[in-house]
């Protein structure tokens, strides 16, 4: 039995041999409990960080062959439980999901208090359940998906038309940009009832840059995540840059909310934004 002091982060990766590796990051512990699973001996200060290499998923799969499907690593100051068998992963992710639901939050996502206001990161509680209920009822429920089916069809047709137009003009198609534009407009129509990017023009560079930068900063290995003592220093500047990117997103959303408050007098049908503004 493993005693988890508080929040843990669950992430899954797959190696080339279809071995699933599930990592659960735990909070710092002053003393290592005697009943922890087997694992490689950690070095002072860095722990087992040196064992991850350039391809952590492959490294973890190799270590699991030595130490077993449930393995303990110390990544800097963070105690980490690694699960690499389907049976153990099912136990953690399905049968005991509530016990493991609270996550260790990467430092970058503390920018603009995103960690306490996002349903993806906030701890399970009344506010989390309220946000999940709003999402389920308005976006991912069967009725909501059926109601928005025409939007999905429309955006796919626009994507096909864009590719056909480029072919007729003998122009190349940036698949990544076209897919991003289609996905963003589908989401924006579901929530805001409008396109954020012209589906037939090479626009929306600023949107792609902002969201792309958020993904880049969130995915960067952050020294603070392994050595929390450096949190106030933010030595890599990741949280500072993330605050700037989040700020730009919030400015965009605020402008759309102001526009909606003016429009709602003659707008007949409600979308997700209208229903959220009524809460």
From TrEMBL:
<dbReference type="GO" id="GO:0004497">
    <property type="term" value="F:monooxygenase activity"/>
</dbReference>
<protein>
    <submittedName>
        <fullName>Cytochrome P450</fullName>
    </submittedName>
</protein>
<dbReference type="GO" id="GO:0005506">
    <property type="term" value="F:iron ion binding"/>
</dbReference>
<dbReference type="Pfam" id="PF00067">
    <property type="entry name" value="p450"/>
</dbReference>
<dbReference type="GO" id="GO:0016705">
    <property type="term" value="F:oxidoreductase activity, acting on paired donors, with incorporation or reduction of molecular oxygen"/>
</dbReference>
<dbReference type="GO" id="GO:0020037">
    <property type="term" value="F:heme binding"/>
</dbReference>
<dbReference type="InterPro" id="IPR036396">
    <property type="entry name" value="Cyt_P450_sf"/>
</dbReference>
<dbReference type="InterPro" id="IPR001128">
    <property type="entry name" value="Cyt_P450"/>
</dbReference>
